[in-house]
Specification:
about 325 residues; alpha+beta; elongated
Length: about 325
């Protein structure tokens, strides 16, 4: 069983322990059983304003990390002493003047995950591991309306991953990508592609051929194979020369779709076929009949091996796959 499922099981066990009051007290003096419950049942569950004037949240996420491999994040948007609205991540110390694009993106996350329904909730259990410590979201709107809740952090929460994604992308666009983990910067040195749709399998790979089959004396070639798995027959098989800029172009396509970043974002779920392209998946999604397999080696020695039958991942990778297949197909038409 992989790590994410292990952590989800831990959450369930912790919930059971909470019910029996098996945790000790913390500095907030929990009322009983190590649980502090200060929930306000009268807190509004509807906020009309979309105009964020202040925002803060802290959390740990198991599939997100910054340039220093740290996974604890503390984001804040508030006015500084000069009255300028600033966005900051306090653990890294990065800071930029906030703008409407950032605030609108954060509100979109609030709406997408219906976080207003949690307004006024405050229930925290003491004594849990660091990744389950209190997570608090506070939002103040221009109208004076407020959204606030506190709970034990869920390391795999989709809404906190979405908040991270908003800030990481926004800071990167401002010229600071330190919220992202170390990226792969070297060129691709090998790529194998397998795509199976219905019963048709398409493969693209590099092969070493005999001297008599060389193209322009080059024995290292690209191979394209189309195979009908139901009929057990080959539909098409071709070889083509490898252009000088082939790996440069493949690297550019992968970078365009942040392939290495997506791969890192979901490293807890690779055994189940999840690779970070669709954050809205359910952990119980069954494998479909179609298949995508992408094997990539980089000059750095880093290897990324993606193999999935999850329809949600395949659909989310459509643009990437279309571009990879279109480029490779064009090389066999010359």
């Amino acid at each position: 069983m992989h790590k994410k499922k292990g952590k989800l099981i831990m959450i369930a066990l912790l919930s059971a322990l909470m019910a029996f009051g098996l945790f000790g007290c913390d500095k907030e003096s929990p009322v009983s059983g190590g649980v502090t419950d200060k929930t306000d049942p009268n807190a509004p569950k509807e906020i009309r304003s979309k105009d964020i004037s202040e925002f803060s949240v802290n959390f740990f996420h198991e599939t997100r990390k910054n340039i220093n491999d740290e996974q604890f994040f503390d984001f804040e948007v508030k006015k500084n002493d000069e009255g300028i609205l600033m966005a900051e991540e306090t653990n890294t110390g990065i800071s930029q003047k906030a703008d409407k694009d950032l605030l609108d993106s954060l509100q979109e996350v609030i709406d997408r995950y219906r976080l207003v329904s949690m307004n006024g909730y405050y229930r925290v259990t003491a004594g849990l591991p660091p990744e389950y410590q209190k997570c608090t979201l506070r939002v103040i709107y221009g109208s004076g309306e407020k959204l606030s809740f506190s709970e034990n952090n869920n390391p795999s929460a989709k809404w906190t991953a979405a908040v991270y994604d908003v800030f990481a992308k926004w800071f990167a666009e401002k010229g600071d990508d330190s919220l992202y983990p170390q990226r792969e910067e070297s060129l691709v040195s090998r790529m194998d592609i397998d795509v199976k749709e219905n019963s048709i399998l398409r493969q693209y790979m590099t092969v070493h051929v005999k001297q008599e089959d060389a193209i322009d004396r080059d024995e290292q070639l690209l191979e394209k194979l189309i195979y009908d798995d139901e009929k057990k027959e080959t539909i098409e098989e071709k070889n083509a020369a490898i252009p000088e800029d082939y790996y440069t172009n493949i690297t550019a396509i992968l970078k365009k779709y942040a392939f290495d970043l997506k791969y890192q974002y979901s490293y807890f779920e690779h055994n189940d076929g999840y690779y970070g392209f669709n954050d809205e998946h359910g952990n119980d999604e069954q494998d479909g009949n179609d298949l995508i397999s992408l094997y990539v080696e980089f000059e750095s020695g880093n290897r990324l091996d993606l193999k999935t039958r999850k329809d949600s991942e395949i659909a989310a990778m459509k643009d990437l796959l279309d571009e990879l297949l279109s480029y490779n197909d064009s090389l066999f038409e010359q």
